[in-house]
Amino acid sequence: MTAHPRAGDCIEALCAKFDRNTVLVGEDIPARNMADTSFLPRLRPLAVVRPDTPQGVADALAICSAHGVAVVPQGGMTGLAGGAHPIEGAIALSLERLQGIEEIDRAAATMTVRAGTPLEVIQKVADDAGFFIPLDLGARGSCAIGGNLGTNAGGNRVIRYGMAREMVLGIEVALADGTLMTSLNKMIKNNAGFDLKQLFIGSEGTLGVITRTVLRLHPQPGCTMAALCGVDDYESVVKLLSGARRGLGPLLSAFEVMWPDYWHAATVRVPGVRRPVEGDHAFYVLVEAQGLDEKLDGERFQTWLESQFETGLIADAAIAQSKADALAFWRTRDAAGEFQTVLGPHCAFDIGLPVAAMDDFAQACRSRLEAEVPGCLSVYYGHIGDGNLHIVALVEGAATQPSSRINRIVYETVRAFGGTVSAEHGIGTIKKPYLSFSRSPEELALMATIKKALDPHNILNPGKVIDLKAEAAS
Fold first, then answer.
1. For residue 133, what pLDDT band results from cuts at 50, 70 and 90?
2. Residue 168: helix, strand or coil by DSSP?
3. Closest of 200, 227, 232 to residue 213, by C-alpha
4. Which residue intervals define the domain FAD-binding PCMH-type in the entry (predicted)?
5. Residue range 101-219 in CATH 3.40.30.10
6. Partners of 377 in the β-ladder
7. pTM summary value
């Protein structure tokens, strides 16, 4: 995409509408707005517009729409699929100044927040008020809630609380033409017509720009229990998951599984990560439970864990005796965030699969990568209780990673196993060529119809997720 012939007029109109701190051009454009964390090449947008009010977001979109200039919404810039990455000839609409907690309604157990507010800020404010925000990501300090909702983020506790969309009761969205649709509902039960918020959650800024949201709050956990288990085979992993769901019920908050290749990379290659369990095991499982009463729920967790030992599902385990122990357990799982440093440039994948098929997939995927990409190392781990598997693949020491070959092999294997190419990170730019591996022609056509209805001039994040021209041609 090249610059629109009216781009100069558009920027002039934006400068006339907003102050110099809101519209940044040329050398004033910060580096943070030139790239997200998807490893795509850096690109300078035509301008960066940083409104600090919802109406300001709507006004910026109205101006861009009137001039036919494309807009790329940006939040914390922590996305991994290129959804917020700049595109040539477009203006970046950054929500970095649209921050703040507007209200905590204790009776309704809701929080109304602006879209640019970092997730960690929201977590802390909820905690101080005696509530709990279950959404949690490694990028919590940088990612913004608007981007979390735009990608329908998952995280570590989906097995209990669901994806990001399960947190949302109300939403405010600026549409492509500058209309500000405010629907800040606080009620759990509200069947008055279409549930419009669901159109925008997970749409990655291609249908509208989220400006505010009403989040559902949960009771603050009174206690957290954790165990890191060594398990001898994948059949036992699946049985352990079933047993945790049955034995712990609503207490179960996380069920993370790490294959041996990942375990070695995390506990040997990443500095400061200790092994809670020694010896070699076929799988390493982190089980977390959250309760309200430490005595009652702690005993229940201990009793359940002992029963799993008795049935032979667990070969060895370490049980957290303190918050520090639990954090150390999670450190093994969060070590993936340091692979870029210790392993070097790599290809990262976020896929979804039927739980029972995950180990078969891992074996098939690893075999293909080793056979077709000489020297390829791949490691496997993820939120198995949610059907979400992560993969890191690379040729160590290679000057340039054979990304296209690795992507093709992984996504072809995902398609063969009936999985999804994106479980929680979105489609953006990087996964768009493979969206048809997980969606039927009829689904893609309906997505294009919705996109055309809400953004008829295709100015919102064009080329991301769904391509109107390609769908029209098909």
1. very high
2. strand
3. 200
4. 41-220
5. no
6. 394
7. 0.92
